[in-house]
Specification:
Elements: H1 8-16, E1 27-30, E2 33-36, E3 39-40, H2 41-48, E4 52-56, H3 58-78, E5 84-89, H4 96-104, E6 108-111, H5 114-125, E7 135-137, H6 143-155, E8 160-164, H7 168-174, E9 180-185, H8 212-221, E10 225-231, H9 241-261, E11 267-269, H10 286-304, E12 310-315, H11 317-320, E13 324-335, E14 341-346, H12 350-353, H13 356-359, E15 365-368, E16 376-382, E17 401-404, E18 412-417, H14 423-427, E19 441-447, E20 454-460, H15 465-471, H16 497-526
Parallel strand pairs: 4-19, 5-6, 5-12, 6-7, 7-8, 8-9, 9-10, 10-11, 11-12, 14-16
Antiparallel strand pairs: 1-2, 2-3, 4-13, 13-14, 13-18, 15-18, 16-17, 19-20
Domain Orn/DAP/Arg decarboxylase 2 N-terminal: 83-321
GO molecular function, one term: arginine decarboxylase activity
Protein name: Arginine decarboxylase
Length: 527
């Protein structure tokens, strides 16, 4: 049961076991305000408005450095003879600044589609991706995908390893007439997994276990193809460390058996799955994972009398999740049919900006920026759209979110954290959202390489209605749209009735313009 006699900070302490004002690695409370590292989020929201989508670049370098450190210590302590390679899985988030930061922080590149290769090429040409790095190519190898891989090799980037997903891809690569080092991906199913969290995992990717020998032989017999890597992705967000390591080691035995026949095999890729903290009480021992996986691989290598392989990991969610967070203002407080639960309506859309909230019931960290000393209240958090699914399912009592109590006429800005991975890629970067809600302003925070000070760049202002209409194909109606209907971020510094009135008026103008455009389209169709 929720103790509503507590203030919000006391609720955090009792619910998540927090013992001081440090909430997790990057969030803390100072002077009754929420900070992201050393950034005062209240000040940030006052300066840039809301809704606001923030990308915090410095945390990418931190994440990469920490994971490299975990494996470096595991290798040193176990006297492991191979190397560790950290690859950024670009499908998690495709922002140029994010990928650039990951690459300059030492990450290698993992792709999953034809356009990924084109983006990798741009980073190579720009000097962000050194030629001695590796590009791993996952995903189904369409002709365009293979053509792009081949063209990049012809231009001079040699360290590309296509991961074979199906038998047909061997012939497609052969037809390019180029030489490739390739990987073999094992299809995950219950035949190779232990009982426990992964016992029901199935995948459409990779080669079935009973066909591994056939595919490996075909690769080895194909001129220009050399098998070098075994890929064994298990699942996503693998929070049970022991089950995950056990599943990987069961898969690694297949590598060992292939290595006895094909001595060119030298790398074991455990794929993705590294979990991230979607809750303040998240616990996962990354160092123990690296230690246990390394020790298990060494033990099995000794059994088969084979050398230690290089270990590769693909980190998308782990790299990008903490990079992104969203700020929203609670525009409206409404009563509900339950006397102890209120509706808090934000100035945005949860289902559009954070599609995993309704598609997967994904939980995120949701916190107020202020009012930690206020009484805690159960609330249902919803977006401003007219869709009944635009609500946040917390998985807690009544599916409610705990937030500070608001007095009549007050507003509250909240932060939704760990949104940097997949949310934009699923909802569409630059796309028009449900009910014509505009794309939020986008702010990138980088550290100056000279002074170390933060530099703030607005990489995309809030969309004008003209931009939104263009994206929807209403090009010939653009002269009829008034630019003054531009939907700018609403100010959060003033909680007066005037600010409230202005925010409603701006939204009303947007709806009027929307109806006008749709009316013109309807008339055009009738005529």
């Amino acid at each position: 049961m929720i103790n509503t006699t507590q203030n919000f900070y006391e609720h955090l302490r009792s619910r998540f076991g927090i013992t001081n004002t440090r909430l997790n690695e990057f969030l803390h409370i100072e002077r009754n305000r929420l900070f992201f590292n050393d950034i005062d989020l209240t000040h940030l929201s006052h300066e840039w408005g809301s809704p606001l989508e923030v990308g915090y670049n410095p945390i990418i370098s931190t994440q990469i450095s920490k994971m490299q450190g975990y494996f470096a210590r595991a290798f040193h302590n176990n006297r492991y003879q191979g190397n560790f390679t950290y690859c950024y899985a670009s499908k998690a988030a495709q922002y140029e600044d994010l990928i650039r930061t990951a690459l300059t922080s030492g990450a290698h590149y993992e792709t999953s589609s034809p356009m990924d290769i084109m983006m990798a090429r741009l980073h190579w040409k720009a000097g962000n991706l050194p030629s001695d790095r590796v590009i791993l190519c996952n995903g189904f190898k369409t002709q365009q995908y293979v053509d792009n891989i081949a063209n990049l090799k012809r231009e001079g980037f040699k360290n590309i390893i296509p991961i074979i997903e199906s038998f047909d891809e061997i012939e497609t690569l052969k037809r390019t007439g180029l030489n490739y080092e390739v990987g073999i991906r094992l299809r995950v199913d219950k035949s190779i997994l232990p009982d426990g969290d992964f016992s029901k995992v199935t995948s459409r990717f990779g080669i079935p276990r009973h066909e591994l020998d056939k595919v490996a032989a075909a690769i080895n017999q194909t001129p220009g193809l050399t098998p070098v890597m075994f890929h064994a992705m298990i699942d996503t967000q693998c929070v049970d460390r022991q089950d995950w390591v056990k599943a990987l080691l069961l898969s690694f035995r297949n590598y060992c058996e292939l290595r006895l026949t094909y001595p060119t095999m030298r790398a074991f890729n455990f794929g993705g799955g590294m979990p991230v903290p979607y809750s303040l009480d998240f616990q996962f021992d990354y160092q123990a994972f690296a230690n246990e996986l390394t020790a298990g691989i060494m033990e099995m290598c000794a059994q088969y009398e084979i050398p230690h392989p290089d270990i590769y990991g693909e980190f998308g969610r782990y790299t990008a999740a903490a990079y992104g967070f969203d700020l929203y203002k609670v525009e409206l407080v409404k009563s509900s049919h339950k006397s102890d639960v209120s509706w808090y309506v934000i100035n945005g859309s949860l289902m559009s900006s954070l599609p995993d909230t309704w598609a997967l019931k994904q939980q995120f960290i949701i916190l107020p920026l202020t009012h930690f000393d206020r009484p805690v209240r159960k609330v249902w958090l919803s977006g401003m759209t007219c869709d009944s699914d635009d609500v946040y399912k917390s998985g807690e009592e009544d599916d409610a979110v705990m937030l500070p109590e608001l007095h009549p006429g007050e507003h509250l800005t909240i932060g939704v954290f760990m949104t940097g991975a997949y949310q934009d890629m699923l909802s569409g970067i630059g796309g028009v959202h449900h009910c014509l809600l505009p794309e939020p302003s986008e702010l990138v925070i980088e550290e100056s390489p000279v002074t170390g000070a933060y530099e703030y760049r607005c990489t995309a202002p809030s969309q004008s209605l003209k931009t939104m209409a263009s994206l929807l194909g209403y090009h010939k109606y653009l002269p009829l749209l008034e630019e003054k209907v531009h939907v700018a971020p609403q100010p959060t510094t003033v909680n007066s009735g005037k600010t409230r009135e202005n925010s409603i008026f701006s939204f009303g103008k947007l709806q009027k313009a929307r109806r006008r455009v749709l009316s013109l389209v309807a008339n055009s169709l009738l005529n």
